Amino acid sequence: MDFEFSSEQKLLQENIYEASKSLNQDLSFEDKWKFMADTGVIGTCIDTENGGLGLGALEMIIALEAMAKGSSDNGLSFAIAAHTLSCVIPINKYGTANQKQQYLPSLLDGKMIAANAMTESESGSDVFHLQCKAIKKESNYLLNGTKTFISNSKASSLVLTYAETNPDKGFFGGLSAFIVEKNQYKVGSTFKKMGLENCSLGEIIFEETYLSESNLLGKEGGGAFIFNHSMEWERICLAGIHLGAMQRVLNKTIEFVKQRKSLGQSIGKFQGVSHSIADMVTSLDVARNYAYRAAWCLDNKKNVSKEAAITKLFVSNSVKTFMLQAMQIFGGYGYISEYGIEQEVRDAMAATIYSGTSEIQKNIIVSNLGI
Ligand SMILES: Cc1cc2nc3c(=O)[nH]c(=O)nc-3n(C[C@H](O)[C@H](O)[C@H](O)COP(=O)(O)OP(=O)(O)OC[C@H]3O[C@@H](n4cnc5c(N)ncnc54)[C@H](O)[C@@H]3O)c2cc1C
What is the CATH code of the structural domain delimited by 238-367? Predict the structure, then answer.
């Protein structure tokens, strides 16, 4: 097994890291998005004939990690990752030639921002228990329903959504995925939240929305399958943004403990402090290695249901604990906004909730063991 990055992977990492450092300037959300789209990060694992780099899940993690290591705008990193992993990748994989031609260029170059709209008020963890219905009328569908907790809701110009198309068939066979353009949905409430500021979170409303068969992604009835597949990508590759943030904060923490003094010596000389740093490095290294391995499994067409759940569970828990440890080491400076650590804590807190909560990941892990 070769654990060395190839020269292509190193170049990708370096280019995206260098570019993303510019995001720390005072730029608008739109300018930041366009700037990162120009680096090619969104198209990392999109087929070359569709305008992407044609790389795999491992390179997707490397790219997202480099972006989040360079930039402290975790909201933007999360927004770009959600757009890429749960919208652009499924359209690249399941879209018709026409759909790919119509949407992928604008989704890759930053003209269009996509939102993945699955969750409803009564279906969060119980993800396929949808009230949203797309009723077939001849060759059209009439879509009605409200989605909630949708990342990129306000910024979106396209939504990939899921609705019941056949109540007699259950999840697999009864739900379908649809690509819906901006003029066909309304953005409802946008929620105030504790972190991830540059990623809007809110409702997407479909009211008597007429869709044609050209809006259907994949086959009618294939929605649950497409969603599960997109979640496996998301649960594995989203690790990249957490790993990048942890590395950036680790570097900052090491600098801090070297220069901050107490009792006449730098605080890094106190074992109580240095052992916390040892714990942080250990969790980052283990999280990174597991995520890379899970991405390798995905690239090698293995069944990754368990690996995706383990990655999501471990990395999301790790990033929360890690940021709290950093805050403790920074003392009072960790609590005030100026040093940026309190923002890292707030941004990390949703990690064990989105893309399926930790409890749901544990359910998936044990179901893979036949329990
Ligand atoms: C920042 C953020 C971004 C998000 N982005 C998106 C997005 O882009 N698109 C989208 O569709 N959704 C998105 N979501 C929604 C997210 O996927 C749901 O919040 C999540 O799946 C949990 O659903 P819920 O909030 O309804 O909680 P609930 O399902 O009501 O769960 C409440 C609690 O009960 C536990 N629980 C529920 N069922 C079980 C069970 N069977 N076994 C064990 N424990 C259980 C949960 O783990 C949790 O602790 C986002 C959420 C957040 C916070």
Answer: 1.20.140.10
